[in-house]
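Sanity check record (used in CI):
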Amino acid sequence: MKKIWILAIALIASLALAACGGGNAEETDGDTVKVKIGVNGADGAQWPILQEKAAKEGIEIELIEFADYTLPNNALAQGDIDLNAFQHIAFLGQYVTESGNDIVPIGSTMFAPMGLYSEKVSDVSELKEGDKIAIPDDPSNQARALLLLESAGLITLADDFGMFGDPSKIAENKLNLEILPMTAQQTPRVLPDVAASVINNGVAGQAGFSPKEDAIFVEDETDENVHPYVNIIAARGEDKDNETYKRIAELYQEEDIAEAVKEDTNDGSILVELSQEELDKAFEELKK
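Expected output for Lipoprotein:
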């Protein structure tokens, strides 16, 4: 009788330990592993393709949709999901700094380039002394817009510009351009009144613009300055080297998914493949 009780207690303990697995990837039937990925939009054309690819390798991907940008990282940290794919490196860096939670990038996904648009000139070389340039005024996009203007050769930024630098950090402005920060939604609306406007990808799309076709200058995805704005697949720090999760990140980079992303975003977004070393470098820079 004593042996039966010992066996029963052992069985209960083992079941309790299994139940504590939370959001960790779990085996379903046979060798299939189930992975929960938190997203902000599960209707992207890339997801069914990724799910099908993963299924062929014994990985069942379940998409968990969140309506609020603040939720997927908390859910990941708490173990309710295994991965998330909704944010760029800069967003994650800010979250980790503020929360102290150990979440890291394990793969890159897409990049939505910011562009410089104009109704008055067709090339940045045509901009003149004193021209007005509109930029978004929220800290992250304002800094990104100024980095774009520097890449275009229009200004030079101070060495201590950082991730949230503003126009006060412009070290050189040869054309004495008048930089006009404003809400992101206003940047396309003021095009008749300014020489050019820096418009982020989402707002440009809503205004009917394509970075590839309409911008007079656009971010270069190979420029290290834009790495913080590359979207990622994120995992808990303890799962950084999980082979199943890394394989999902690899599958995301395949050609048919790249084509699906381009078509789904009307060429507004492109797949970018950063190495783990590049991801780590960009991420660590943000936490300094």
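Residues 46 and 257 are 5 Å apart (CA to CA). If this sentence no longer matches the regenerated tokens, the check is flagged for review.
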